[in-house]
């Protein structure tokens, strides 16, 4: 019997009207919660025969929690699919566990392959779809209640099979270690497909009689996971009067920076657990300075999430705290952490798991018996001087600086360490990064200091360079950035790629573009509907030339420039038809799309396009990539934020912003591809042509915006 369900039944008898879970505009009290779980259980028993696993592929919300517990009651193993899985990882997991069914939101049905007719499942006000799958049965250990898939640093995800008893042992230990007095309003920030959130967050809260607030990721600031809106997240935490949350270090850093800048507090917050990667003591000190109650922990899927945790009654920020009461662990001579009673029953498709579990994590116990994590056994860097260094240690110090969003430390067999640095925002310049690295180096011993570094584009799940919980895929990153890393050792301090030179040497022209009144007001949403349609009109007139310009560049490109030709082919395939998106947006916003299609551009727009053709045909076809830098870089920095502000103020529906919003997210990945491509260009003439084009297009693009009639009086379309 589930301890969590037993606790819910008890609360339903003793405090039937107490709020148990809320989110997506729905609140469910304890009495209603147990009734809904029982109803869902009966429905699942009637519609899922044979005992095969059931995959859960729905967004964060109350229905996820109800479905999770109902699956256990129905005797069906649940398989949470994390939203960050790629389509290939998703299909692999479904095949690996032999899933018999998948439960999705209705709009996802078309994406499911090889499926039969779905059944509709109602959970409270939420309508879901149960779809049978043609997956052959596979080996699943007895008593498996949940199969959680880890997106490891290499290879395919592994399905960790866990019993309900094993998962709830963690939750019961957490209630024991933290105390029921801390049970209040728990706010789910991480995806519920992540074991840490559903076991340590939801189960623990319900065992202690608290309230779970589960909103969709988009509504709390994660519409674009690689560009989180931390201000919205902080607002959501304040609005919910959240008492507890679970974060990973990157999210904690963003929350801290937002609170520091706004000089506000989370007055109701009493407990924030942070884990998933090593946390710098400096990051925890920042939290302490603003009164944020942050406690570091350590865990892994095979142990059903949490293994050790600091608590309000027993905390040392230099450690991950004491192991939970039910955990038995030891360390071998090399410092590897060994867990003697892990919760894992086995892996999907494999035979049962034999204990003890060698975690691959390195650490030691301090004099008070608290666990200190130093890094991963497989990641240890051995420098040219024979020093063994855990890169996670240095990376955690780098991430403690507000200016640094992501960092990967390298230096195997080298005489000094280097780092790939991703700024925390587009407004962070190189001087700010250099100063941040200098502060970090002052806290580190000489052998662990960063002597060489390069700025890079973000590591994301979309480019497969991080796992779903933000852990770096080191092997992939080191391979992809091999040339950048080798080049960095030629220079002390920052190594500038040609891409970085483009950024630096066009700074004046970029600033000129940003000072155009139409752009300034658009970023605030302070433009009229007429101005927005006028902008889309001019966008159509230059975007319809994107593919012809690339085809022109291909014709004039020397055949030996194979990498540039291949890049043009890839861009042509990606960009074909985007001008039609713009016409659709114009029509949906109330404009005359056909009149635009058959019309003529303004003089400034025509001059920009003409200059591009002339430069490509008369000077150097490689110059086209200077235009790519301007248009995609501008989209990355301005499009999404500007579109959301305009949409909010004009009250226009989502289908009026397909071009802008898609390019804000899409071009971030394009810019990473572009940055890598620029690293391959070694011809000085090509470099100068690209730089020349970029400078001119920034100015001409600004002229295009400035020529658009600008009426700041907002016309609301709602």
If you had to describe this structure to a student in words, what would you say it looks like?
This protein has 718 residues and is of the alpha/beta class. The protein has 3 domains: 3-371, Rossmann fold (3-Layer(aba) Sandwich); 380-495, ANL, C-terminal domain (GMP Synthetase, Chain A, domain 3, 2-Layer Sandwich); 503-706, Heme Oxygenase, Chain A, CATH 1.20.910.10. It is 44% helix and 17% strand. The chain contains 25 helices and 27 strands. The strands form 6 sheets. A 9-stranded mixed β-sheet has the order 2-1-11-10-12-13-14-15-16, with helices on both faces. Strands 4-3-5-7-6 form a 5-stranded mixed β-sheet, covered by helices on one side. Strand 13, helix 9 (281-289) and strand 14 form a beta-alpha-beta unit. Helix 1 (3-14) packs across helix 2. The relative contact order is 0.07.
Provide the number of structural domains: 3
Residue-averaged pLDDT, rounded?
A: 89
> What is the C-level CATH assignment of the largest domain?
Alpha Beta
Biggest sheet, spatial arrangement of strands: 2-1-11-10-12-13-14-15-16
Q: Please state roughly what percent of the residues sit in beta strands, choosing from under 5%, 5-15%, 15-25%, 25-35%, 35-45% or over 45%.
A: 15-25%
Q: Report the uncertain regions.
A: 712-718
* CATH fourth-tier homologous superfamily of the largest domain: ANL, N-terminal domain
Number of strands: 27
Helicity level = 40-55%
Distance between the termini: 52 Å
Shape: globular
Give me the Rg, rounded.
27 Å
- The CATH architecture term of the largest domain is 3-Layer(aba) Sandwich
CATH topology of the largest domain, by name, is Rossmann fold
Going by helix content, strand content and strand pairing, the class is alpha/beta
Number of helices: 25
Quick one: biggest sheet?
9 strands, mixed
């Amino acid at each position: 019997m589930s301890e969590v369900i037993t606790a819910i039944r008890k609360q339903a008898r003793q405090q039937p009207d107490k709020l148990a879970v809320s989110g997506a505009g729905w609140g469910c009290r304890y009495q209603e919660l147990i009734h809904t779980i029982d109803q869902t259980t009966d429905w699942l028993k009637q519609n899922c025969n044979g005992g095969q696993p059931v995959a859960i592929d729905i967004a964060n919300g109350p229905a996820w929690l109800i479905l999770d517990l109902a699956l256990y009651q129905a005797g069906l193993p649940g398989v949470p699919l994390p939203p960050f899985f790629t389509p290939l990882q998703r299909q692999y997991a479904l095949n690996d566990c032999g899933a018999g069914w998948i439960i999705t939101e209705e709009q996802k049905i078309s994406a499911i392959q090889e499926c039969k007719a779905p059944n509709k499942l109602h959970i409270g006000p939420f309508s879901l779809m149960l779809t049978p799958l043609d997956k052959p049965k596979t080996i699943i250990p007895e008593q498996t209640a949940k199969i959680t898939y880890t997106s490891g640093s290499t290879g395919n995800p592994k399905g960790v099979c866990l019993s309900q008893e094993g998962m709830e042992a963690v939750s019961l230990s957490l209630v024991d270690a933290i105390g029921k007095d801390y049970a209040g309003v728990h706010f789910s920030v991480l995806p519920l497909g992540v074991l840490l959130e559903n076991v340590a967050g939801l189960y623990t809260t319900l065992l202690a009689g608290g309230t779970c607030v589960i909103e969709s990721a988009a509504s709390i600031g994660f519409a674009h996971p690689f560009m989180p809106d931390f201000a919205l997240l902080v607002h959501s935490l304040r609005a919910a009067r959240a008492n507890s949350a679970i974060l990973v270090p990157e999210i904690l850093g963003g929350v801290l920076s937002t609170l520091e800048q706004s000089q506000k507090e989370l007055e109701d917050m009493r407990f924030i657990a942070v884990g998933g990667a090593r946390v710098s003591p400096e990051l925890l000190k920042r939290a302490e300075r603003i009164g944020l109650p942050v406690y570091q922990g350590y865990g892994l899927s095979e142990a059903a999430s949490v293994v050790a945790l600091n608590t309000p009654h027993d905390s040392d920020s230099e450690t991950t705290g004491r192991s939970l009461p039910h955990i038995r662990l030891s360390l071998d001579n090399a410092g590897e952490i060994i867990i003697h009673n892990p919760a894992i029953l086995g892996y999907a498709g494999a035979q049962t798991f034999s204990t003890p579990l060698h975690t691959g994590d390195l650490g030691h116990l301090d004099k008070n018996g608290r666990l200190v994590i130093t890094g991963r056994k497989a990641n240890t860097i051995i420098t040219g001087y024979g020093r063994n260094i855990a890169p996670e240690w240095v990376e955690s110090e780098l991430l403690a600086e507000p200016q640094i969003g992501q960092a990967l430390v390298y230096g195997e067999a080298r005489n000094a360490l280097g780092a790939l640095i991703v700024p925390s925002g587009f407004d962070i310049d190189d001087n700010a990064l250099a100063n941040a690295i200098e502060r970090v180096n002052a806290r580190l011993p000489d052998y662990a200091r960063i002597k060489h570094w390069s700025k890079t584009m973000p590591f994301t799940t979309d480019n497969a360079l991080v796992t779903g919980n933000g852990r770096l895929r080191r092997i992939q990153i080191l391979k992809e950035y091999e040339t950048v890393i080798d080049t960095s050792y030629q220079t002390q301090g920052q190594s500038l790629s040609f891409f970085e030179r483009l950024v630096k040497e066009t700074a004046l022209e970029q600033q000129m573009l940003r000072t155009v009144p139409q752009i300034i007001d658009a970023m605030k949403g302070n433009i009229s509907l007429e101005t927005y349609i006028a902008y889309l009109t001019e966008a159509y007139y230059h975007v319809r030339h994107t593919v012809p310009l690339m085809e022109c560049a291909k014709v004039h490109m020397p055949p030996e420039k194979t990498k540039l030709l291949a890049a043009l082919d890839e861009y042509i395939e990606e960009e074909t038809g985007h001008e039609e998106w713009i016409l659709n947006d114009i029509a949906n916003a109330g404009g005359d799309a056909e009149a635009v299609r058959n019309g003529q551009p303004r003089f400034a727009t025509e001059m920009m396009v003409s200059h591009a053709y002339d430069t490509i045909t008369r000077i150097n076809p490689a110059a086209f990539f200077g235009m790519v830098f301007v248009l995609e870089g501008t989209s990355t920095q301005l499009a999404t934020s500007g579109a959301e502000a305009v949409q909010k103020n004009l009250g226009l529906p989502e289908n009026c912003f397909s071009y802008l919003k898609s390019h804000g997210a899409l071009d971030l990945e394009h810019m990473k591809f572009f940055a890598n491509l620029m690293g391959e260009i070694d011809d000085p003439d090509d470099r100068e042509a690209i730089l020349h084009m970029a400078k001119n297009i920034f100015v001409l693009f600004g002229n295009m915006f400035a020529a658009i009639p600008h009426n700041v009086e907002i016309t609301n379309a709602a």
